[in-house]
Write a structure and sequence with these properties.
It is a single chain. By secondary structure, the chain is of the alpha/beta class. It is 40% helix and 17% strand. An 8-stranded mixed beta sheet has the order 3-2-1-4-5-7-6-8, sandwiched between helices. The chain starts with a strand and ends with a strand.
Length: 248
């Protein structure tokens, strides 16, 4: 399998779906992480240029934990929009990675960059199949199923459709997040706890909903072609995920 995770900022993918990505990697899947902005607003002490450089290095180390591929698009942090240019870039990301499954931000997420990525992913998975749209990479032969990631603290996203037990891969998720040193340091100074602590709390919360220690939650994209939980492991593939029963 080939998996694509589309995030707005460095560390977004780690926060919301790294445990699930680790399950795929353990079973031989190829994972691509596409980061749309350079994260230049992520420091109150460094210049935007310095911050962007630091965050790209951190993102490379983080995906290296899984042996995943990083696509760094470098759009300005805080000013990502679904424009003709960014939509073409998103199409090219899909064509280049040729995913069987796509993960992206929830359309109701709190951050405007997150919502932009959600729109871009929804459009790109359809347009990537159109051969009349020029691109450095050939058109795909299918529309990949799209799953929306959880939102920060599980708010703004409604009720998820599917939970993945990440108890066995939580260590990999934490290791990836730990590589984002600048963001963890900044959050400790502001909040007294870092993003590793935050993601563990969220994974525990989602796990409690379905009776496991740690879980990640996702919402199936409802727009045509609609996605279902079965699309996480397409028919005919040997990859299997530890899906949890939907809470009553």
């Amino acid at each position: 399998m080939r998996i694509l995770a589309m995030g707005a900022h460095p560390d977004d993918v780690e926060l919301f779906c790294a445990g699930t990505l680790a399950h795929y990697v353990r079973q031989g899947a190829h994972v691509t992480v596409a980061i749309f902005t350079n994260g230049e607003l992520g420091s109150r002490t460094l210049s935007p240029e310095e911050t962007a450089a630091v965050r790209e290095r951190e993102a490379l180390r983080a995906v290296g934990v899984l042996g995943a591929e990083l696509l760094w698009l470098g759009a300005p942090d805080g000013f990502l929009f679904d424009t003709p240019d960014t939509r073409r870039e998103a199409v090219d990301v899909v064509r280049r990675s040729r995913p069987d499954v796509i993960f992206a931000h929830h359309p109701g997420d709190y951050h405007p960059d997150h919502r932009a990525v959600s729109q871009l992913a929804s459009a790109a998975r359809l347009l990537a199949r159109e051969p009349s749209l020029p691109s450095p990479h050939p058109a795909t032969d299918r529309v990949a199923p799209l799953f929306y990631m959880d939102t920060l603290l599980g708010t703004n996203g409604g009720t998820p459709d599917v939970w993945v037990d990440i108890t066995e891969t939580m260590e990999a998720k934490e290791a990836m997040l730990s590589e984002h040193l600048s963001q963890n340091d900044a959050r400790r100074q502001r909040k007294g706890a870092d993003f590793v602590d935050l993601t563990k709390q969220q994974a525990e919360y989602r796990g409690q909903q379905v009776g496991v220690r740690y879980a990640e939650a996702f919402t199936c994209a409802p727009s045509h072609p609609a996605t279902s939980a079965l699309d996480l492991t397409p028919a005919g593939d040997d990859v299997r995920l530890p899906l949890c029963a939907t809470p009553r």
